[in-house]
Design a protein that fits this description.
With about 210 residues, this protein is mostly helical. Helix content is about 55%, strand content about 0%. Strands 1-2 form a two-stranded antiparallel ribbon. The longest helix has about 30 residues, at about 35-65.
Length: about 210
């Protein structure tokens, strides 16, 4: 299957997230502050889920046989060449458990966090698609956007002093303001481009997607 449609879908989803983010920033009145935070959390969560879905999709398509944007065709690398087999391998590897031949998984909640750059290396290596080197270079290439997005979303979903400390540790990387709520980090500034941190994360995701489908 072609990989390009996955990139196009992600870009459309991220564009909607960026629009939602910018719309939320217009809520500046005192009585609108909580609405603003809720809208920012929504944009953040949607972006993270869209990215995870992209990573899942490209791993499944690559392992089942795919055609890259460069026109290179790769044969299936898993047997059976089915998403359920890919799902099974990914969940077992992510939990550091042995992979048994022929077994599959069709329960989506068992799957790993596909967008987690700390897990994707072992998953791609286990799936071993023909474009593994390209996937690893893109998905685990060091761009900070997905990881920072993941950390902030986790801090919003699990608000405690530990997740707050993790987000505050990112402050030296950005032009940061005081963190009163996790979503405040979304409007920190990238010191290189002076764009909002959240927008820079989306740009990183777009870059990763462009590289991954090559």
């Amino acid at each position: 299957m072609d990989l390009d449609p996955l990139r196009f879908m992600l870009e459309a989803q991220l564009w909607r997230c960026e629009l939602a983010f910018k719309d939320a920033l217009t809520l500046t009145k005192k009585q609108e502050i909580w609405r603003r935070k809720h809208h920012l959390e929504g944009a953040l969560s949607d972006a993270w889920q869209a990215y995870c879905s992209f990573v899942r999709g490209i791993c499944i398509r690559s392992s089942g046989g795919c055609k890259t944007s460069a026109g290179v065709v790769h044969p299936p690398s898993v047997v059976p060449a089915d998403w359920r087999r890919v799902s099974y391998i990914a969940l077992r590897i992510a939990k550091n458990r042995p992979v048994q031949p022929g077994l599959t998984n069709d329960v989506l909640r068992y799957e790993p966090t596909w967008g987690d750059s700390g897990k994707i290396v072992v998953i791609v290596n286990a799936l071993n698609p023909g474009n593994a080197a390209t996937l690893l270079g893109a998905l685990a290439g060091g761009l900070k956007g997905p990881k920072h997005c993941q950390m902030l979303r986790n801090a919003c979903a699990h608000r405690n002093h530990q997740t707050r400390t993790e987000v505050e540790a990112l402050a030296p990387i950005y032009i940061a303001t005081k963190l009163l709520h996790p979503t405040d980090a979304m409007v920190w500034r990238d010191p290189t481009t002076m764009t909002f941190a959240f927008v820079s994360w989306l740009d990183d995701m777009r870059t990763i997607a462009h590289l991954a489908v090559q």
